Amino acid sequence: MKNKERIGVGGLIFLTAALNLMLLVSARFSPDPPYQHYALCAAINITAVACLLNRKDMLRLPRYLFRERDVVWALVKNDFRARFAGSYLGVFWAFFQPVITIVLYWFVFQVGLRSGNMSDHPFILFLMSGLVPWFYFSEAWMGASNSLLEYNYLVKKVRFNVEILPVLKVCSALFVHLFFVGVVVLMCVGYGYGIDLYLLQLPYYTCALALLATGLSYITAAFTVFFRDMSQIVNIILTMGIWLTPIMWNPAATMSLSLQKIFKLNPVYYVVAGFRDALLEKLWFWEKPAWSVYFWCICAGIYLIGTKVFNRLKTHFSDVL
């Protein structure tokens, strides 16, 4: 085992022990039953063991992205520009459609249905703080799911690493996402929320969402090559997901605690709630330790499964395409 690998293994063991300790301590002060925290401790340990056993598969992509970062960055910028090549307004369309969607949702719920404020916050801020991460997730996952079909000429090249194609879509979607993050922060400032240290969590939640989208896209992109209807299935999931995450309504005001826990099983809900915590509620992510641990266990599991599925099927991509 190399020195860098030993450091990574030691860091993972230390992190696992720290998370176990944090959950065991929080179990004494949490209103939730202790067995939930014990179950999460078991999930952490199982996830850590799975990551250790498959560390080569999980670290291969990050190592390649770091080593070839200049090439990857050039491909990401080219992918973003290529989406709007040939249109008169160019990249303007990348920003115009989300703006229209936000305005329509605001008009329907605020003006038409007279929803009022949400959790003592202006509805437009509640809406945008949920839609901004959702827009990024939906664009990244849908684009990455079709990345192998879009770049089929690169897949057929023997020396090209096809593993980076879904990552290109996840990264290129960041351009629009970062713009709207800046817009919603400015709107919060305009409503008197101010700029504070809680906003430092926005990069954390964005990275969490990017990793989740990457893991899911490895599964769906690999299946899309053999089963073209997979892209339609992803589209249906995203159409349902915007209402089940939830984005436009507050489950805390309308649902029992048991139903809220069911909704929290959706990992995207963790990020949406995190954006609202950072922008509006002014809460830190470590104030919800059980939910944070659950999200990262699910995220690591999806990423591990995604890399396994992708690597198992990639040898057949060029034959099918």
Architecture overview:
Helix 4 (69-82) packs across helix 9, helix 6 packs antiparallel against helix 10 (174-190) and helix 9 packs across helix 11. This protein has 321 residues and is an all-alpha fold. 77% of the residues lie in helices and 0% in strands. The chain contains 17 helices and no strands.
Short description, anyone?
This protein has 321 residues and is mainly alpha-helical. 77% of the residues lie in helices and 0% in strands.
Helix content: over 70%
Order of helices and strands: HHHHHHHHHHHHHHHHH
Low-confidence stretches: none
Could you tell me the mean pLDDT?
Answer: 82
**Total beta-strand segments:** 0
Structural class label? mainly alpha
- Distance between the first and last residues' Cα: 38 Å
What does the radius of gyration come to? Answer: 21 Å
| DSSP summary: helix tally | 17
Basic shape: globular
* Main sheet makeup: none
How large a portion of the residues is in β-strands, by DSSP E?
under 5%
Strand-helix topology:
Elements lengths: L2 H27 L4 H20 L1 H13 L1 H14 L9 H21 L10 H23 L1 H4 L1 H4 L8 H9 L1 H17 L10 H26 L3 H15 L6 H4 L2 H7 L3 H15 L7 H25 L3 H4 L1
Helix pairs in contact: 1-2, 2-16, 4-9, 5-6, 6-9, 6-10, 6-11, 6-12, 6-15, 9-11, 11-15, 11-16
